[in-house]
Amino acid sequence: MSDLSGVKALVFDVFGTVVDWRTSLIDDFTKWGETRGIKADWTALVDGWRAVYAASMDEVRKNPQNGYVILDVLHRRSLEKLVAQFDIKGLSEADLQHLTLGWHRLHAWPDSVAGLTRLKTKYIISPLSNGNVALLTNMAKFAGLPWDLVMSAELFEHYKPDPETYLGAAKLLCLPPEQVMMVAAHNYDLKHAQKLGLKTAFVARPTEYGPLQKYDFEATGEWDIVAKDFGEIASRMGC
After folding, report:
1. Which of 10, 17, 89, 151 is 20–30 Å from 224 (CA)?
2. Could you say which DSSP state residue 91 is in?
3. Arch. (CATH architecture) of 9-20+106-237
4. CATH fold for domain 22-104
5. What is the pLDDT of residues 27-76, one digit of tens each?
6. 66 SS3 class
7. Is the pLDDT of residue 1 over 70?
8. Hey, do 9-20+106-237 and 22-104 end up sharing a CATH topology, with the first three levels equal?
């Protein structure tokens, strides 16, 4: 058993860990498309969009001379390519903006808000996400996420899993890394956080990618907590 008595704050991956991005976007776009009379394979669009997510951030890393680019802008660039690729016709500038901001309108997993609310009674809770500050703030309003503050890769101008994100979060909280716990549904995220001294909690989200899920069905590392949902994390942390 890990000694978690020193933990003061929990920081959370968001996409897939706190919110169900795939179902949220597919349902949102399907309903919207019907009202606008726009036909498209929205499931394929959403899956294709997420599939290029990592590569879009890698482009920022590889080209530091171009400066940091927030996720909203990366999402919009990817969307424009996908709309052309899927031959989706009749989209105005306002339509493209509405679709891009779909990432601001994601619903939480059923256990997220209750579990976060319990954890907030004893700990500082915050996202530590590649989403930009406006995206994460709007999402919290939409989904009722009770964060104490919003920490984003944008604050550090580095995307996870760059060390600057994890260490930057601890520094902003004026805490040593070992007093911060990273919570994620992705083993790779926890691996990078653990290397830098953060505590770790894994929660499985086996339907995050729907039928396309290939990994993260279970914990693959020696994490401090492995839980079925946020409620179990709260119980383990004495909330």
Report:
1. 151
2. -
3. 3-Layer(aba) Sandwich (3.40)
4. DNA polymerase; domain 1 (1.10.150)
5. 999 999 999 999 899 999 999 999 999 999 999 999 989 999 999 999 99
6. helix
7. no
8. no
